UniProtKB/TrEMBL annotation:
The organism of origin for this protein: Sediminibacillus albus
Taxonomic lineage: Bacteria, Bacillati, Bacillota, Bacilli, Bacillales
Highest taxon of source: Bacteria
Protein name: Glycosyltransferase involved in cell wall bisynthesis
Glycosyltransferase 2-like domain mapped to chain residues: 7-167
Signal peptide annotation: none
One family name in Pfam for this protein: Glycos_transf_2
GO annotation, cellular component aspect: plasma membrane
Keywords (A to Z) from UniProt: Membrane, Transferase, Transmembrane, Transmembrane helix
GO molecular function terms noted in the UniProt entry: transferase activity
Bilayer-crossing regions: 228-252, 264-286
Keyword Flavoprotein carried by entry: no
InterPro entries for the chain: Glyco_trans_2-like, Glycosyltransferase_2, Nucleotide-diphossugar_trans
């Protein structure tokens, strides 16, 4: 078995109650292993940072990075990967929905030579509406994006040092980690577990946030929506020309009738809707270009006990 210094990366936002619990659960799994537990406080508004700070003061293996405000989970993941020092890095949520007993299975995959070992959950416990929408989303996204995304596979995974460095080479501002993990490739192993319902606190993922996250995934890894605008415009233009031709023939044969209110309003509303949708899609890409050109940092650090400040 090859020697391994392990980093456990835990992005945390308003998880004050769960911080001590996940630490204790991890200590039971990592008792005989050289490791660090790295918490990323994503600008929490409760006592999350206080709990992390207390753990760090009492246990030298606990490291932390605290943001000046809430920059989002993607920024927290990036900061964690930049600061993690392990030969392998396991990404986990702080809400205890990622079972700590899987750490040993993830490490087994690493010892077998895999650079990515991904934990995949089932949908037990999720609402029927959410499960249905999720299945539909992944069926759509599998057809349109340039990377492979699988239902049930999220951020809970192990990355080798080689895979971590590969992810860090991708410096775009609009990040979608699921897509980035797939894009870098590397040999991958999947381990399975049953979905666990959150015991403490409320989920930070509302339907609105999930929808926005889904759009981010579609837009970040393909340009097909822009092509849909082009094809849609061409089809509508051809149908409009055909309609004009039919109406011209009818006028030549029967003369001019009183224009129909319904046909005019329908055409205006339909074409207006198509134009607005197309502009919205184009705007999504233009907005991302604008954000990238500003080159703002992904996050700002308020406090850390890490020597490596990136």
């Amino acid at each position: 078995m090859k020697a391994c210094y392990l980093s456990i990366l835990i992005p945390s936002y308003n998880e004050s109650y769960n911080i001590p619990l996940i630490y204790q659960a991890l200590k039971e799994q990592l008792a005989k292993m050289d490791h660090e537990i790295l918490f990323i406080d994503d600008g929490s508004e409760d006592d999350t940072f206080k709990q992390i700070h207390q753990l760090a003061a009492a246990h030298e293996e606990v490291k932390y990075v605290s943001f000046t405000r809430n920059f989002g989970k993607e920024a927290a993941l990036l900061a964690g990967l930049r600061h993690a020092r392990g030969d392998a890095v396991i990404i986990m949520d702080a809400d205890l929905q990622h079972p700590t007993y899987l750490v040993s299975e993830l490490l087994e995959g690493y010892q077998e030579g895999y650079d990515q070992v991904v934990a995949k959950r089932d949908r037990n416990g999720d609402s029927k509406v959410r499960s249905l929408l999720t299945k539909i989303y992944y069926k759509i996204i599998d057809q349109v994006v340039d990377v492979k995304l699988k239902d049930g596979e999220g951020d809970f995974r192990l990355l080798s040092r080689k895979a971590v460095e590969a992810v860090l080479e991708l410096s775009e501002g609009n990040r979608f980690s699921k897509g980035l993990f797939s894009w870098i490739g590397f040999e991958q192993k999947t381990v399975y577990y049953s979905n666990k319902v959150r015991d403490n606190g409320d989920s930070k993922w509302s339907y609105k946030k999930l929808i926005n996250y889904g759009i981010e995934g579609i837009v970040s890894f393909n340009q097909k929506p822009l092509r849909v605008c082009l094809y849609g415009g061409l089809i509508i233009m051809c149908l409009a020309l055909l309609y004009i031709l039919v109406m011209l023939v009818q006028i030549i044969r029967t003369g001019v009738d009183v224009p129909g209110y319904f046909s005019i309003i329908s055409s205006v509303l339909f074409l207006g809707g198509v134009q607005l949708v197309s502009l919205g899609i184009i705007g999504e890409y233009v907005g991302r270009i604008y954000a990238e050109t500003k080159r703002r940092p992904h996050y700002l650090i308020r406090e850390t006990n890490m020597d490596r400040d990136l």
